[in-house]
Description:
Layout: E1 7-9, H1 15-25, E2 29-37, E3 40-46, E4 53-58, E5 75-79, H2 82-91, E6 100-101, E7 109-114, E8 120-125, H3 134-138
Parallel strand pairs: 1-4, 5-8
Antiparallel strand pairs: 2-3, 3-4, 6-7, 7-8
Amino acid sequence: MDWTLEVIVVPVSDVDRARDFYRDKLGFKLDVDRQVTDDMRIVQLTPPGSGCSIVIGEGIGGPEGGPEPGSYAGLQLVVADIKAAHAELVERGVEVSDPVEIAPSDGGTFMHFKDPDGNAWAVQEYRVRATKPLYEVLRPSDD
């Protein structure tokens, strides 16, 4: 049985501000923006090319209320060309760190940014993804 990670709930304090940031600054596709009940609003956005979306909203934290806005760190996006991704984010007005090579191997270069609430994101360059889809990258070789 496949178990796919398809949605991550990101805690935010202002749904409209967060929606606009993820859609307009990061270029995520707005999939859903729906007032489900008087107390629940769901906004789902998907990064270009991703099989996993984020959900922001009101009344979606469960009975305990969920994590505090801005408390997430370690959310990660993967791109094939970090220089192009950096230029795109800067052009869109995102405050993003310069790319830093942690290791010379493919997958060893990162940059970072935060959403308006302070949720911290990393962007990793993985150049092989430009020529191979994820399922081929993850499949063990027959060698």
